[in-house]
């Protein structure tokens, strides 16, 4: 076998998810059976100072010779960077991703890809014009668990999917946790609210089971009916959003199918941390597939067939393992010693695409990301939620 190819990453932003992603990226891919590629981090940039980028590199365990930049421009201009990972708030993704594409860099950009579909269309056009790889970092799509669920559907285990319930809700205490309203979860200037941050995962489950599993030539956009409740103190950020979708499907594929995607920062999929309630239910005439919370990082599935058969599976996240002294996690939670977070699967996909010349992610191409942004635009239109012009604009560059 030939030597693994190493992909050199540049990390754009130094916040919570950039830290988790970078730590995962530096886990040896052999721990998950991936032997044809490796990842390294050659640079990170902070919008505030090079010192902050240096601290970030140290905290994530990046190689000692990785460069620390105090501006995103320097990062995208670094000739040693093969691909840029964009991990700023969603309000900034359009500007930051365009910056990288303009500099000729492939990009893996955090979810939600952009604030609206017009911005994403402009990014997709730019990537296609320049022949550059571009992918939304919806990591869950690349989990072996998600591959398994899609395979069960296409193998016909539950018959044609007739209905999907998908919830991703995290009860927070916004008036206390994000009291001054500046946090990106509730701040309209940072495209705050449940839909773009959490609801994207409810829609991910709907689309990856009801849409992505259909042959490409018959996939059609869904009809959308939405209800939205805004968060009082900051007004233009949604607190709870509910979307009913109807997917047109050929009669011989089961006919039209329905989905309900829900999200909230006020109530939880897992009340009091009880994870026994399936947040995702995929229903067909022959049975049901259940996925247990959290929707973004699930580790448990159950299939219940019409004849009473029950198949339960647990999906661990690989990593350096027990005794390694290595820990990761996100926000306030820490995973078990040596257990990865699961962000490396999407990084492997991006690296593999660079090695093999693919320009999009295999499990969610740009057109599907655009369609999901269209659904979120329509949801916001029906719910009357508009963000400030400066973050909805496609004008590039715009100073944010
Ligand atoms: N995949 C997942 O599981 C997951 C989880 C959480 C978040 N996310 C996504 O990742 C993105 C970042 O979320 P996060 O939780 O990492 O946010 P965060 O902790 O607030 O970090 C965001 C970073 O962006 C940079 N930034 C640049 N301009 C900014 C501004 N005006 N306000 C705030 N930060 C600014 C800052 O780093 P520098 O200025 O130093 O560059 C900051 O540390 C969001 O789009 C979110 O949806 C994904």
From TrEMBL:
<dbReference type="Pfam" id="PF22725">
    <property type="entry name" value="GFO_IDH_MocA_C3"/>
</dbReference>
<protein>
    <recommendedName>
        <fullName>D-xylose 1-dehydrogenase (NADP(+), D-xylono-1,5-lactone-forming)</fullName>
        <ecNumber>1.1.1.179</ecNumber>
    </recommendedName>
</protein>
<feature type="domain" description="Gfo/Idh/MocA-like oxidoreductase N-terminal">
    <location>
        <begin position="32"/>
        <end position="135"/>
    </location>
</feature>
<dbReference type="GO" id="GO:0000166">
    <property type="term" value="F:nucleotide binding"/>
</dbReference>
<feature type="region of interest" description="Disordered">
    <location>
        <begin position="312"/>
        <end position="340"/>
    </location>
</feature>
<dbReference type="InterPro" id="IPR050984">
    <property type="entry name" value="Gfo/Idh/MocA_domain"/>
</dbReference>
<dbReference type="InterPro" id="IPR036291">
    <property type="entry name" value="NAD(P)-bd_dom_sf"/>
</dbReference>
<dbReference type="GO" id="GO:0047837">
    <property type="term" value="F:D-xylose 1-dehydrogenase (NADP+) activity"/>
</dbReference>
<dbReference type="InterPro" id="IPR055170">
    <property type="entry name" value="GFO_IDH_MocA-like_dom"/>
</dbReference>
<dbReference type="Pfam" id="PF01408">
    <property type="entry name" value="GFO_IDH_MocA"/>
</dbReference>
<dbReference type="InterPro" id="IPR000683">
    <property type="entry name" value="Gfo/Idh/MocA-like_OxRdtase_N"/>
</dbReference>
<feature type="compositionally biased region" description="Gly residues">
    <location>
        <begin position="320"/>
        <end position="332"/>
    </location>
</feature>
<comment type="similarity">
    <text>Belongs to the Gfo/Idh/MocA family.</text>
</comment>
<keyword id="KW-0560">Oxidoreductase</keyword>
<feature type="domain" description="GFO/IDH/MocA-like oxidoreductase">
    <location>
        <begin position="149"/>
        <end position="268"/>
    </location>
</feature>
């Amino acid at each position: 076998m030939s030597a693994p190819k190493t992909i050199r990453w540049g990390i754009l932003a130094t916040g919570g998810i950039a830290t988790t992603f970078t730590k995962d990226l530096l886990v040896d891919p052999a721990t998950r059976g991936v032997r044809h590629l490796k990842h390294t981090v050659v640079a990170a940039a902070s919008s505030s100072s090079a010192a902050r980028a240096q601290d970030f590199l140290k905290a994530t365990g990046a190689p000692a010779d990785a460069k620390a930049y105090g501006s995103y421009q320097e990062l995208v201009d670094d000739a040693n960077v093969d691909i840029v990972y964009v991990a700023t708030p969603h309000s900034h993704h359009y500007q930051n991703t365009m910056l990288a594409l303009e500099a000729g860099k492939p990009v893996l950009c955090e979810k939600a890809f952009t604030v609206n579909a017009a911005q994403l269309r402009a990014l997709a056009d730019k990537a296609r014009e320049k022949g550059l790889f571009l992918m939304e970092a919806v990591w869950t799509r690349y989990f072996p668990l998600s591959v398994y669920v899609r395979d069960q559907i296409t193998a016909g285990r539950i018959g044609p999917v007739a209905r999907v319930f998908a919830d991703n809700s995290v009860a927070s205490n916004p008036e206390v946790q994000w009291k001054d309203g500046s946090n990106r979860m509730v701040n309209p200037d940072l495209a705050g609210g449940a839909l773009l941050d959490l609801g994207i995962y409810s829609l991910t489950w709907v689309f990856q089971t009801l849409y992505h599993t259909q042959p490409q030539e018959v996939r059609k956009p869904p009809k959308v009916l939405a209800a939205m409740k805004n968060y009082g103190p900051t007004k233009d950020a949604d607190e709870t959003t509910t979307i009913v979708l109807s997917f047109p499907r050929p009669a011989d594929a089961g006919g039209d199918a329905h989905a309900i995607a829900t999200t909230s920062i006020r109530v939880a999929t897992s009340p009091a941390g009880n994870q026994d309630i399936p947040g995702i239910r995929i229903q067909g005439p022959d049975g049901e597939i259940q996925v247990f919370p959290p929707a973004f990082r699930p580790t448990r599935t159950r299939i219940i067939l019409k004849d009473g058969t029950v198949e339960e599976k647990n999906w661990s996240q690989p990593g350096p393992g027990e005794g390694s002294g290595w820990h990761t996690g996100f926000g306030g939670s820490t995973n078990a010693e040596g257990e990865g977070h699961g962000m490396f699967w999407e990084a492997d996909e991006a690296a593999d695409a660079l090695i093999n010349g693919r320009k999009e992610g295999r499990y969610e191409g740009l057109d599907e990301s655009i369609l999901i942004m269209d659904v979120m635009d329509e949801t916001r239109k029906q719910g009357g939620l508009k963000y400030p012009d400066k973050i909805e604009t496609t004008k590039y560059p715009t100073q944010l």
